[in-house]
Design brief:
Mean pLDDT: 95
Number of helices: 9
Strand order of the largest sheet: 3-2-1-4-5-6-7
CATH topology: Rossmann fold
Distance between the termini: 36 Å
CATH class: Alpha Beta
Low-confidence stretches: none
Order of helices and strands: EHEHEHEHEHEHEHHH
Strand content: 5-15%
Number of strands: 7
Structural class: alpha/beta
Largest sheet: 7 strands, parallel
Shape: globular
Number of domains: 1
């Protein structure tokens, strides 16, 4: 335990599981007061109870602007003004692009992109009159290096990266920090059945959480996990397109997600990500 973030109020969307839950735990250990929002309130409550402290679990449908506003209202009434807002909620249904249905496309952009935009704007409207705050948007390295089998997901996360850059350019001078977090393949339910890439082993949600904590303590715009992924992606972006494609194929970007499509360990997650489960 430490007190590096004592007195800070931090909200995290989609924090009942995975990276969000790990981040909530890590921030609480640093002394922050954390509110976790999730569409599955029972899961959020169980996570908050496991974390302890004054962690607050609240219902949140990030696709509803009213729900996002109510989420922030409740946090501010209970814990105080929000200092850091983390847009973490996201889904990653995998599909060959010709097989992906319109409903899945709409759902990916609703949760991964539009919800991030709404959350950023609502948080900024509350933070700027107080002199500033910090919005952290969780994207993916897939937003910088599109991977076959995740065309729509990659596009949704590329939008998060570019929106975050524009938001930083527009709002940083007014006191609002904006950070975009770009993890590689992270061992959560979201990546069930996906093999490691030859050059990069999958990372843990705890490693992403620790990187987010560091970004809260010392704000910066871009956070890659692992850091070597950012170096690799930035170097490849300087090369001719065909050369970058050749390197990507050598690393498995042309098949690693497609290979996971029919694996039984993805069945449960795919149903939940597409909103077709029975819950």
């Amino acid at each position: 335990m430490s007190d590096r973030l004592a007195g800070r109020v931090i909200a995290i969307t989609g924090a009942g599981r995975g990276i969000g839950a790990a981040t909530a735990a890590a921030l609480t250990r640093e002394g922050a007061s954390v509110a976790i929002g999730d569409i599955d309130l029972d899961v959020a409550k169980a996570t908050a109870e496991a974390i302890g402290g004054d962690t607050l679990a609240l219902p949140l449908d990030v696709t509803s602007q009213d729900s996002v506003a109510e989420f922030m209202d409740t946090i501010e009434a209970t814990l105080g003004p929000i200092d850091v807002y983390i847009n973490n909620a996201g889904v990653m249904p995998l599909s060959a692009l010709l097989d992906e249905d319109d409903a899945t496309i709409d759902r990916i952009f609703a949760i991964n992109t539009r919800a991030m935009i709404h959350g950023t704007r609502e948080a900024a409207r509350r933070m700027l009159p107080r002199g500033g705050g910090h919005v952290i948007n969780v994207a993916s390295t897939a937003g910088r290096a599109g991977i076959a089998g995740s065309a729509t997901y990659s596009a949704s996360k590329a939008a998060v990266i570019m929106y975050s850059q524009a938001a930083y350019t527009e709002l940083h001078a007014r006191g609002l920090d904006v950070t975009v977090v770009m993890p590689g393949i992270t061992r959560t339910e979201l990546t069930a059945g996906i093999d490691d890439l030859p050059a990069f082993r999958a990372i843990t949600p705890e490693s992403v959480a620790n990187a987010i904590v560091d970004a809260v303590v010392k704000p910066r715009f871009a956070v890659y996990i692992p850091g070597s992924a950012g170096t690799m992606i930035n170097l490849i972006s300087l090369l001719p397109f065909r050369t970058g494609q050749w390197i990507g194929k050598k690393m498995g970007a042309d098949h690693v997600f497609l290979d996971a499509l029919d694996k039984p360990e993805r069945t449960s997650y795919e149903a939940r990500a597409k909103g077709t489960d029975s819950e």
